[in-house]
């Protein structure tokens, strides 16, 4: 079972040295001088990508029905208070592109063969990646399992082709139970297995009943009751903070993954202010203690929830929340609570558990499914979000790398409701590459236009706990852009490194720029050989996953390569 890292643990894997040598591959060109790692870069031209911001947009009428047939002229995009010019547009309906730019796309002929359908498709749809996040820390087993049965049936038929799914669980430890797969049946079987596992939501309710009993039977003053409630709220607050870390860790790992990313969170709700309903209970129990109601805001976590929103929008992840508690009766009239001196205010309780789910869904372009015992129909609506939608692209008029922006999409026609994420982060090329390198530690990325390759040598002991692993990165000269400048031709490569060890601990990202300089007259001969970059990494024993990116800075062409490395505690290294 793979375990995801959450929080910010000290890295167990780190880099000893980045640049030890850079040399040409050996060959009949033996007379060639190797480029020196610290040689001056010289002057050269560098290309810059014009970044387009793309927003996935859902449009419904006042009754919640999907609205199709709109064009880019039916929308207005406002970023940071300024209207933007829409440059890219396509509409998807029924899982295929029906409008591209300014032109409708005719459907394939009836009974068309697969190759005819492919030929009639103007562009492939982005992959859809569903991340099912089962939060057993904030769920009761019965509620969680009821929802999972609906999800099991749904993924069995929905996850296939360009739709991938994965399962992550949180129960005071964050675990990947199933990596991305297009096998819906496999995903369904994993969810079925989760029904047999414990969930701590019942324990939380039991602890709350103990607090209520103390307020009713043992406390002799509002102050005593408040002290016990504060202790209970602090415990909930600690668990909630770890939950925030788990959600952020999952979202961050997805930041470099391409395609539409939809995180489906299953729980009994997440409190805005842990224990808020008990402060109201004290107020109702002691009629002269209205001031205690406001004490619940001591633990208000709205700012933390907005932090999750920022992470999700920066990573391009839409959040969908399924409140597994469903339609519930007043908890104060259940059999075990008949002796209570007062009653839990159900409105305060439900609002406290659901308001942040609604907020996060709205801010990220997702949905919050609340007060439903059967979620089979809402799951169909979720499916429509990636089979019937509009994609709107524009170039920001106020460009700024790694800067957050507020964005709003409006429909010109009255009565239409538009749903899309409400902010995003315009990322620099370096940031995008760094995120992709990190994500590739968890989700393989196959994109190698530069033809880069990784070779690892035999690890050597550095100290009792660490080994030095030689790493050689090869890039064919024929793939590197070199600009002639008199007798020399120059270019520059940027290298990015990250390592994940067998315990799920991740190194910091390391980068190194390396000039490439050769004699112009020798360029034709060099095209048969590789530029070689040697580096040594310090690793702990066990299995390691090395993720590397190589960027040609002149063309901004980027290659991503990953490799499994095994470091034996006996001092022998292996490769696989």
Can you tell me about this structure?
- This protein is of the alpha+beta class and 576 residues long.
- The chain folds into 3 domains: 195 residues, Immunoglobulins (Immunoglobulin-like), CATH 2.60.40; 111 residues, no CATH class; 260 residues, 3-Layer(aba) Sandwich (Rossmann fold), CATH 3.40.50.
- The protein contains 11 helices and 28 strands.
- Strands 1-11-10-9-12-13-14 form a 7-stranded mixed beta sheet, sandwiched between helices. A 6-stranded antiparallel beta sheet has the order 8-7-6-15-3-17.
- α4 runs parallel beside α6 and α5 packs antiparallel against α6.
- The radius of gyration is 28 Å and the shape is globular.
- The N terminus is likely disordered.
Key attributes of the depicted protein:
3 domains, disordered N terminus, 576 residues, 32% strand, 28 strands, Rossmann fold, six-stranded antiparallel sheet, seven-stranded mixed sheet
What is this structure, in a nutshell?
The chain has helices spanning 114-119, 141-158, 184-194, 201-218, 222-253, 276-285, 302-315, 346-364, 376-387, 429-439, 523-526; strands at residues 2-3, 14-24, 53-60, 75-79, 82-84, 86-93, 96-100, 103-104, 128-135, 163-170, 174-181, 260-267, 317-323, 368-369, 389-394, 403-411, 417-419, 423-426, 453-456, 460-461, 467-476, 483-485, 488-501, 510-519, 530-539, 542-552, 557-567, 573-575.
């Amino acid at each position: 079972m793979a375990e995801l890292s959450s929080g910010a643990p000290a890295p167990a894997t780190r880099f000893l040295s980045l640049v030890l040598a850079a040399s040409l591959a050996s060959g009949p060109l033996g007379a060639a001088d190797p480029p020196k790692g610290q040689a001056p870069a010289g002057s050269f031209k560098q290309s810059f990508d014009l970044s387009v911001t793309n927003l996935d947009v859902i449009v419904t009428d006042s009754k919640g029905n999907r609205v199709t047939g709109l064009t880019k002229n039916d929308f207005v995009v406002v970023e940071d208070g300024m209207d933007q010019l829409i440059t890219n547009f396509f509409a998807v309906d029924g899982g295929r592109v029906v409008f591209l730019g300014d032109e409708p796309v005719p459907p394939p002929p009836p009974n068309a063969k697969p190759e005819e359908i492919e030929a009639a498709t103007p562009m492939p749809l982005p992959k859809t990646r569903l991340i099912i996040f089962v939060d057993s820390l904030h769920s009761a087993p019965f509620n969680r399992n009821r929802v999972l049965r609906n999800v099991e049936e749904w993924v069995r038929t929905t996850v296939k082709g360009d739709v991938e799914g994965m399962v992550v669980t949180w129960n005071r430890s964050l675990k990947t139970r199933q990596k991305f797969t297009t096998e819906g049946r496999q995903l369904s079987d994993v969810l079925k297995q989760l029904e047999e596992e414990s969930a701590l939501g019942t324990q939380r309710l039991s602890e709350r009943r103990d607090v209520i009993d103390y307020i009713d039977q043992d406390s002799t003053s509002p102050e005593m009751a408040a002290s016990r409630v504060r202790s209970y709220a602090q415990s909930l607050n600690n668990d909630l903070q770890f939950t925030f870390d788990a959600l952020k860790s999952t979202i961050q790992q997805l930041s470099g993954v391409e395609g539409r990313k939809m995180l489906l969170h299953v729980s009994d709700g997440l409190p805005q202010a842990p224990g808020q309903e008990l402060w109201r209970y004290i107020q109702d129990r002691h009629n002269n203690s209205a001031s205690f109601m406001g004490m619940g805001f001591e633990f208000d976590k709205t700012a933390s929830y907005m932090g999750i929103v920022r992470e999700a929008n920066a990573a391009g992840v839409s959040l969908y929340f399924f409140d597994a508690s469903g339609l519930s009766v007043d908890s104060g009239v259940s059999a075990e609570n008949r002796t209570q001196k007062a009653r839990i205010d159900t409105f305060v309780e439900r609002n406290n558990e659901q308001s942040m789910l609604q907020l996060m869904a709205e801010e990220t372009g997702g949905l919050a499914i609340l007060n439903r015992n059967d979620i089979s129909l809402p799951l169909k609506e979720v499916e429509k979000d990636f089979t019937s939608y509009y994609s709107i692209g524009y170039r920001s008029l106020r460009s700024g790398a790694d800067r957050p922006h507020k964005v709003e999409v409006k429909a010109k026609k009255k009565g239409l409701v538009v749903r899309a994420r409400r902010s995003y982060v315009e990322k620099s090329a370096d940031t995008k590459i760094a995120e992709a390198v990190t994500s590739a530690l968890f989700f393989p990325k196959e994109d190698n236009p530069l033809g880069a390759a990784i070779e690892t040598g035999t690890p050597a002991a550095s100290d009792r706990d660490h080994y030095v692993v030689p790493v050689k990165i090869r890039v064919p000269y024929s793939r590197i852009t070199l600009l002639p400048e008199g007798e020399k031709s120059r270019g520059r490569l940027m290298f990015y490194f990250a390592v994940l060890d067998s315990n799920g601990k991740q190194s910091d990202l390391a980068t190194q720029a390396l000039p490439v300089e050769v004699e112009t007259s020798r360029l034709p001969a060099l095209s048969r050989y590789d530029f070689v970059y040697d580096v040594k990494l310090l690793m702990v024993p066990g299995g390691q996953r090395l993720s590397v990116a190589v960027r040609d800075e002149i063309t901004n062409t980027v290659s991503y390569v990953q490799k499994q490395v095994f470091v034996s505690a006996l001092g022998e290294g292996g490769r696989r």
